[in-house]
Amino acid sequence: MFEKILIANRGEIAIRIMRACRELDVKSVAIYSDADKTSIYTNYADEHYPLGDPSPSKSYLNIEKIIDIAIDSGADAIHPGYGFLAENSRFGKECEKNGITLIGPKGSVIEAMGDKITSKKMMRKAGVPVVEGTDKAISDIDQGVKIADNIGYPVIVKASAGGGGIGMRTAYDEEELIKAIKSTQSVASTNFGDSTVYIEKYLEKPRHIEFQIIGDEHGNTIHAADRECSIQRRHQKLIEEAPSPIMTKELRKEMGDSAIKAAEHINYTNAGTVEFLYNKGEYYFLEMNTRIQVEHPITEIITNIDLIKEQIKIASGAELSYTQKDVVVRGHAIECRINAEDPLSDFIPDPGKITAYRSPGGPGVRLDSGVHTNYVIPPYYDSMISKLITWGKNRNEAICRMKRALSEYIILGVETTIPFHKAIMRNPYFQNADLHTHFVDQHKKGID
Ligand code: ADP
């Protein structure tokens, strides 16, 4: 087992990882930018070191500085959490050069799965169903038009290097397609430094269903069941639940086997997620996330597997603590992402000082949070400040508990997504599990 783990992240996920370290009796190291000098997460670590300038490129994305701190503090491993450097293959290589274990899959796997064109190609080869489209970059507009004519409208133009819902645009005809190619290329170039785009069929009302994968370095791979993440805004998840309300034993076996096949094909190790779009009885590989997901707690709750501790153990060379047979789904869990955003103004971020804070609790409630009264949410980073998770013996109980927990949750001083979540929990279509990825747009009136 490692002696000391540096957590290359901030906020709620840093606390989550530090908690796992403490339970494993491993020392932890926090890093913080000037904007996080008073952030509470640093108190959960055994040591903390400053990064200085708050801009992400100079702080949580500063590979050289973070490796230097790891060396100075004597950390023998780094956990990247999600976001920031979590899927940065250069970070993996630098860690390796310095004899530090990066808790996650191999750098080459991160690199291959980070490129959507490469990952689709590999999954097609593995025999996993993928969304219809070409597995090649669009070189010019004429070629794009031909490809879209072949696939049939509507189509979606995607940045190969895209992520976080950025670099995606739909087109319902040729005129829209030409605009979509140009704008996606420019967004991709600005955000990812790579203007490569490709086209695939746009599924109009799919469900987003994903599988949690865990693989060790001894050739064992299992899935820890499924999650449904169809409640999204701007292609980003807002509410997740596990298991998917439409999941049957047979479908879980089929999709789970596909997810394992995807992972085994690339010799995947550690925790990862295989994302699918599900439409009218068919499912298609969307992408593989080579890190722990924001929504991992709902899987932990229904399977009783501590995914972060499992990640740490696997990275230290241990065998998986579970076989596929040990994965038993118990009840239902829902996660609401609490973001400092104004849901009535198109979810624009609303950073600032939390003037009053009261957290919910009671039976079946888990809160992963990084904030408190008088905490100032910095404008530099993600607007997610906490995750409210409820468990119930069935979906209805999980929803009732979520309604109750949301009504107990008080955050004043900034706008949050709490009113949005309250409206969704009351929505009869949500209650009936009549979900798809455009749910929020379609039901906006009811939510407003
Ligand atoms: P990112 O890497 O930016 O998260 P993904 O490829 O995972 O992007 O897609 C995010 C979301 O975008 C999906 O959950 C879905 O809502 C939507 N999406 C992506 N591809 C398609 C498609 N071919 N058809 C319909 N919706 C899509």
TrEMBL record:
**Which cofactor names does the annotation list?**
Co(2+); Mn(2+)
Q: Which NCBIfam families match?
A: accC, PRK08591.1, PRK08654.1
- The residues covered by the ATP-grasp domain are 120-316
Q: Which UniProt keywords apply?
A: ATP-binding, Ligase, Magnesium, Metal-binding, Nucleotide-binding
Which residue spans adopt a coiled-coil conformation according to this UniProt entry? none
Concerning InterPro entries, the annotation shows: ACC_Biotin_Carboxylase, Acetyl_CoA_COase_biotin_COase, ATP-grasp, BC-like_N, Biotin_carboxylation_dom, Biotin_COase_C, CPAse_ATP-bd, PreATP-grasp_dom_sf
Species of origin: Methanobrevibacter filiformis
EC no. given is 6.3.4.14, 6.4.1.2
Instruction: Output the Pfam families linked to this UniProt entry.
Output: Biotin_carb_C, Biotin_carb_N, CPSase_L_D2
Organism classification = Archaea, Methanobacteriati, Methanobacteriota, Methanomada group, Methanobacteria
Q: Where's the Biotin carboxylation domain?
A: 1-445
- The protein's name is Biotin carboxylase
Q: Name one GO molecular function term.
A: biotin carboxylase activity
